[in-house]
Structures
1.
Amino acid sequence: MTGLLLRLAVIGIAALGLAACMDETEREAGPGRIVRVETVTASDLGDVATITGDIQAEQEVARAFRIAGRLTDRPVNVGDAVEAGDLIARLDPQQEEAGLSAAIAAVVAAQGEVATAQNVYDRHAELLRRGFTTRARYDETLKVLRLAEAGLRDAEAQREVAEDRLAFTEIVADTDGVVTARGAEPGEVVAAGQMVVRIARDDGRDAVFDVPARLVHALAQADTLNVRLADDRNVTATGRVRVIAPEADPTTGTFEVRVGLDHPPASMLLGGSVVGEIELQSAVVVSIPASALTRGHGLPAVWTVEPETSTAALRPIEILSFAPSSVIVASGLNPSDVIVTAGTQALHPGQRLVPLPPNTN
């Protein structure tokens, strides 16, 4: 009897233990652990590089005299606005005026010689018709007439040259613009072709930058570039890369890049300092909240929610960089993955999860 009671007691204890295990299993398979989740989305990891430069004219014209001479007048200075037709500089015209007077006198003399030769020829032509002169005499008068006519043409050509030289003693603006440099002062003797005034044309503005080699490719790929005044960042303009120097500057190792500005504001004056902003793009990455980060087997990891079973799974990840409240993940996660961002304590693989609604605090 005593042995029977002992066996019943053992069976009862085993039954109680089995019941406890069943209760624990039921709790694990019940509603699950409440967690906060977030769906992973892809993004481009962008950065902005800044470069400095200045405003220059899209085109500059160097004006010079075609002849040498003494500069007597230069009514414009650096910074002056000029319009097409305005006088820019003048040489002493005395020598060219004398040359033109001599050329005109030569034309008048040649015209007289032609008139005389024409009269002689006409008279001998009539005499030849009547038989009162010889063919040889007639041919001689014709030759004299042709030589006189050639002399007149030469004299007229010399007069045109003299007129041009007199016109070359003045330089006028051929376009509206602003004077950016001067190369000679009144009283100096200037050579033909020597720059006297440089004019920045009003038909375009460039932002010119000296760009490091590592940014040249990004600039070449950029559709547009944001340009701001260095002393007033609220003054902005957009532009497109117009010219990239084919070779680097041997001293600085940088490449000159000219960006044509679209309708720049009036306050972006020539010579003003500007800052350009280049958007740099990297490979597609994902950013997750820092609270989602945990460790698995000594490596960075996150808990994900298996979509078919709503259970937890530990996923190793590779971290690209850290931010104050987020982590940039280089690999290990895909867009549309669901990760646990709160409630990660004491999770284990296969555990049933109950995500909180998005608006639940």
2.
Amino acid sequence: MGERHILAAYNNDTATFHLQLLTKTLDMQKYPFIKLIIERTITNEEYDELFHLLHTLNSKYEVQKEDGLLDFSSLLIHFAGMLNEKLDPNETIFALKAEGYFVELMNTFIKIIEEDGRK
């Protein structure tokens, strides 16, 4: 049993080390969302939950847009309220947009954020 524990710790340490090497070789400025996921230690499950949330919100956005709705603040509030506590809503939105995820929805969220900042 002790051997497995040592092996697991070794593998985890090795994986962490390899990940650190990879992040040094990549231009992380091009991948701000991936950088957030790594820095905030988002798990695979948490990552999947985030994308489930985004798909749900994007579907609601499309329906509301088709219905002629112009105010999507409730979707942004829902996103911020359901977002993993390890992530900052604004930072996550800008990072998602930069990497091309849900661009129209993220542009809408950014517009709301910027309008609120001007008030």
3.
Amino acid sequence: MTQQAEFNQGLIDFLQSSPSPAHAVKAMVRQLEQAGYQALNEGDEWQLEPSQGYWTTRGDRSLVAFRLGDKPVAEGGVRMIGAHTDSPCLKVKPKAELLRQGCLQLGVEVYGGVLMHPWFDRDLSLAGQVHFRDETGKLTAALLDVAKPIAIIPSLAIHLNREANKSSEINAQLHLPPILGLATDDHSGDNAKTSPALVFRCLLADWLRDEGHSVGEVVDYDLCFYDTQPPALVGLNQEFISSARLDNLLSCYTGLQALLAADTLATDSPQAATSLLVCNDHEEVGSASAIGAEGPFLESVLRRLGGEEQKYQRMMARSMLISCDNAHAIHPNYADKHDENHGPKINAGPVIKVNANQRYATSSETSALFTSFCDMAKVPYQHFVVRSDMGCGSTIGPIAATKLGVRVVDVGAPQWSMHSIRETAGTQDAWYLAQALQAFISTWDGQ
């Protein structure tokens, strides 16, 4: 198996093991610990050693990992890679149980800019965090992945909506609650344990007990539905990877592999500079939270690294962040949705994203720097600019640039079907991006 094939298999395994942001962070922590990175608690005083790797989390859904260089951070700056752990999905409401027409359903809230139609007729499961009291009354938390298909959102037959292929509006409140099964006598009546208001929490408690947890009472949860179809290599020559959550777990995985690989590839050793990976939750809903990119998580870590204000400012002046978030590949059936000179192609290299209105933080300087990293790694690169008559999405890049005053370039692997329940990217592009990121971490001198 080639290095690229091993890389893609690792990506597939990571996607499969990460049905929620908390699971993605857990999977990344596992790899960091295997590489010798040590855990840090934000509530403790940090004693950091040169050349040692560390990681810390917030809310178990956002992660910062870094390896200190031998060079003082005020002199070498920090080489940063940023991504996000969340993806658009359907989240379960606090009081979710619905009994309608003899069916047990769960009410859901749309998280982020979900492309709704593809969620119908999929085999769905649940994953995320559950907070519960154990049998002694102690409040604790655990990750849950039900793994098996437990729900479905059936489409309405075309016989009952003859205009479905022309125009089919989806009402998130009425049309998206998944069906878990048919209501039974256990789901009604006066028994408190089987009343509709407690059915779901009883199910959660049973699933957690099956995983070895001592559960007295489920108190709350942060759970999302996901498609149980596993990732796959697709195409006559397996040139595509098809999976849920490529936006943006592909970038999380790619950034992590670049960080780990660059540990042994630094070309300016023994004066290696500090390298860092940040993966935030809540990007898909604006990043405004304690664990999102607009919150203080990354800055608080950087200030600990920088020390007193003068050194911190010198460090930031020598730092750069590559914001990695997948880009829109040109769709052969909808080519007119792209600017004719800026239509990135699958398997043609990472995409530099540019927007004059600062929806992306790329500048001509940071774009030129990134192209040099691609040249060093001998990988191709592309540019994306949205059509002038269309709106433009955004990333954590402009947020980081605004909060930190750091140089930022927005890049990403090209993909199709962004924000669908199942997305498609190229089997070469994540590898290309990883090579460029490794060149950045291993060679950039902070100038």
4.
Amino acid sequence: MSTAIKPSHIGRKISRIRELRGMKQETLAAELGISQQSVSSLEQSERVEDEKLEQVAKILGVTKEGIENFSEEAMVNYFNTFNEKVSSSNFGHHNTCTFNPLDKLMESVDENKKLYERLLEAEKEKVAYLERLLEKK
């Protein structure tokens, strides 16, 4: 059995990241200014020029190193760990709300109403003050 390390296939990594981003080959091709067939052959290439890899990385919203170091296994492990943390917190399956959101909404509406009424009263006082000043002149 061989213990040789499988070479990194950059094209497959680009393809997988593009798919995870929900981007079609046509979209990537348009952004790069090349044909869809060229993107297809790029994704079948084991190696990609650094300059082209930089362009692809920028369009995909990742770094060049992010593409080079991309690992499907690491991604799955990351999301499994994330899901374990979420399910063990209050954001998981045992959600309990200690207040009624509609009550909170109505409280804020009442507060806004009171603030508006105070503002209106202050404006009325200002107008009355200015009218008294005008009458004295």
